[in-house]
Each structure stands twice: as C-alpha cells, then as structure tokens.
Amino acid sequence: MMIVERSGVRTTLVLNFKGDVKRETRWIAQYGQALCTVVAGSLVWELDPRKWRAVVPLAAATVVVSLLAMIVKRLTGRVRPNREDAGKFKGFTWKHSNARESFPSSHSANAVAMSAVLAMQYPAAAPTLWTLAILCACLRYVLDAHWPSDVLGGIAIGYLSAVVAVRYIHVA
C-alpha cells in the first residue's frame, strides 16, 4: 500500500461530516481506546464467571499494542495526511508530535486487539466485535487521520498482539 501512496495516486479523502453523522463517526472511531477497553473489561468482569480468562489477555493485548504502536510511531515519524510533508517518514524523535505520528494507526491496532481477544473468548459476539473494529479502522482513513498503509499496519499489530495474548497468557 505504501508503494501506491508514494506513487502519487491520491489516497486521501477530504470529507466533512456534520451533525449526528459527525458525532457518531467520532464515537466509532474511538472504539478500542482506553476508556472503551476499561468499559469492555468491566462488563466482562461483571458478567462472566470466568472473568480472568478474558480480562487479563484483553488488558495485556491493548497495553502491549499501545506501547508498540507508540514506539513505531516515534521511530518512523510518518507525517499524517493533509499536513506539511504529508506521507514523509521523518525518522526518530523522543518528542511527541501528533502531526508525525501517523504510522501505524494505534486506534486501528487497539480496536482490532480488543475485538480479537473478545471474539476469541466470546465467539457469539464476534460479528459485532469485528464490525466495530473494521468500522473504526476504516474511519481512521475516512476521517483523514491516517494513510491506508497506516491502518493496515495497525490492524496487523493489533491482531498479532491479540493472538499472542490469548495464546500465551493462561489464566485459570
């Protein structure tokens, strides 16, 4: 995807949502972030007698993927769409700079990590969980926060984090 983006093909959108559509899309675009993860973990804790089986991998996957995404963002320094030097990789910095923290999409990574862990533990809920994760990832692109390759990179590390957490964290 990065080859397509760098070849000059227009891969960004400039859409302006208004009213309820704007508010609803922003809510879905936050799926998987810290507060959402705490709420999901709290619901599992309250409703599932095997609570540890899902809550611990959920917490581990989302914390690890958040840290991993932050490290990669700081190492690569990719500039977000519609900013000066958009798409360029500016390299390592210790300093937080939202404009150059495009790759990978941590929102996509967290949404996929959360949905994957929960879907593995609660297969009946998988269609809803995956729909939310995919909508969140798509909205990161549609809302011009990320390049398509940023979203795909986030999806990949989110899924990997979830698989590792569920496979290697054994809780009775």
Tally of domains: 1
Overall body shape? globular
- Whole-angstrom Rg: 17 Å
Q: What share of the residues does DSSP label as strand, in percent?
A: under 5%
Helix coverage percent of residues?
55-70%
Q: State the distance separating the first and last CA atoms.
A: 41 Å
Taking the sheet with the most strands, its summary is: none
Low-confidence stretches: none
Helical run tally: 7
How many DSSP-defined strands? 0
SS-based class: mainly alpha
Average pLDDT taken over every residue: 89
In sequence order, what are the helices and strands, one letter per element? HHHHHHH
Question: Which helices and strands appear, and what pairs or packs with what?
Answer:
Layout: H1 2-6, H2 19-29, H3 34-47, H4 51-76, H5 106-121, H6 126-142, H7 148-168
Helix pairs in contact: 2-6, 3-4, 4-5, 4-7, 5-6, 5-7, 6-7
